[in-house]
Amino acid sequence: MYFKHERERIYAENEKGDVIAEVTFPIRDGVAVIDHTFVDDSLRGQGIAGILVQSAVDQIRDGGYRIASTCSYASAWLEKHPEYSGQE
User: Fold this and answer.
1) Is 38 exposed, middle or buried (0-12, 13-18, 19+ CB in 10 A)?
2) Confidence of residue 87 (pLDDT cuts 50, 70, 90)
3) Residue 16, Cβ neighbours under 10 Å: how many?
4) d(Cα 56, Cα 34) in Å, to the nearest integer?
């Protein structure tokens, strides 16, 4: 699956151009807040949401921003992976 990377968003589209997977992380005052994770029903159970969140965290860290989350999935993912959230 090919993911497109933007400054505050990573996503994938199907052949029709519909968004089928997405994570968004608006950046304000040096903090990127992961606020939305979406995976189409047709892709569920394949680990796509985890890949999206990990990619977002990598991109956020590479940009030198701190990480926060208001998305329940991303918050749970960060708790399970403290090495990515910087909460070791």
Assistant:
1) middle
2) very low
3) 6
4) 8
Token pair 């956020």: residue:
60
Cα distances from 80 to residues 1, 16, 31, 46, 85, in angstroms, run 24, 35, 20, 18, 9
Under 8 Å between Cβ of 44 and 60: no
User: Buried b vs exposed e over 52-81: b needs ≥16 C-beta within 10 Å?
Assistant: bbeebbebbeeeebebbbebebbeebbeee
* Interval 11-66: pLDDT, tens: 999 999 999 999 999 999 999 999 999 999 999 999 999 999 999 999 999 999 99
- Give the three-state DSSP class for 75: helix
